[in-house]
Write the structure tokens for this entry.
Amino acid sequence: MTAIAFYAPMKSPRHPVPSGDREMARGLLAALAGLGQGGTALVSEFRSYEGQGDPAAQDRLRAEAQAEAARLIQRGRAEGWRLWATYHNYYKAPDLLGPVVSEALGIPYVLFEASRADKRLTGPWAGFERAAGAACDRAQVIYCLTARDREALAAAQPPGQALVLLPPFLNREALPPAARPVLGRLITVAMMRAGDKLASYRQLAAALALVQGEWSLDVIGSGAAEAEVRALLAPFGARVRFLGALPPEGVAAALSEAAVYVWPGVNEAFGMAYLEAMAAGVPVIAEDRPGLREIVPAAGLVPQGDAAAFAAQIAAWLGCAPDRAALAQAARVEVAARHLLPAARAAIRAALPVMQGEAGA
């Protein structure tokens, strides 16, 4: 028996390519487990993502979604589903399943991380944006990962809907061991792709060129833009080590030796890698951007596009071990209090419709 049917239209938690989106989906599955009598299951791996603005492709996805929804309705009736939960509904990957299935089964429907984009109501994604908006309208509860998201959704909040703040969290019950940093070692963990990621690597390279003193950088990640990233960091020679895409245990081992985590975070929504670093006791330097302000402590935020300020912050933290240690401890305390599974379960449970009236809720 399944109490909670879970679905992620943007990227399944079983997707082979690692990303913050995939990790958040896995974390939600772990957090939801046990919150309803009967457990939680990933019920579909149908991917509605359409990134090119191709109406014909979107029509094909809608047709596929109709068939998938019909299958899920039958399964849901057989298994006695009591709630549908979807992670990440937006105009490029709207939830085409949850609203249909939940209505047919007469069960509550909730969203984790959702957005509306009125500017997309005209143009190549207009139909998908209408679908994303309809999913938002249908939801009894929307869990928002940032206060900024909650404020944006409040502008079109239907009567009776709850908008609940759920800070991003790591898929772990407790903190990892604290880092034992190697002197001068910096680290970044990020995919290598065109667009915002490459822009961040470009700004990181500009800052590193201005850092005085001894330093080294471990880069964890891979992707289609790896050649461009290597070219950007080539002037630093052996100071930069490219470690490739590592499994979680490899990332943890690298973080355990890092002194400072450096990543500008151009247009990052919040950034799970920042939380991983902070949990390990590695202080973070990032650009001062709306989403990052809700994750990164103010001491680690520098003005956008200011390579000199970024470099100065790196040099200051590498040059003062006591200050860095204090920042590291404060980061671990913050993550333990707000960004691990126990805190996430408590926030979800407080508003989850399926918990109403259940024994032990």
Q: What stands out?
A: The two ends are 18 Å apart (CA to CA). The first strand starts at residue 4 and ends at 7.
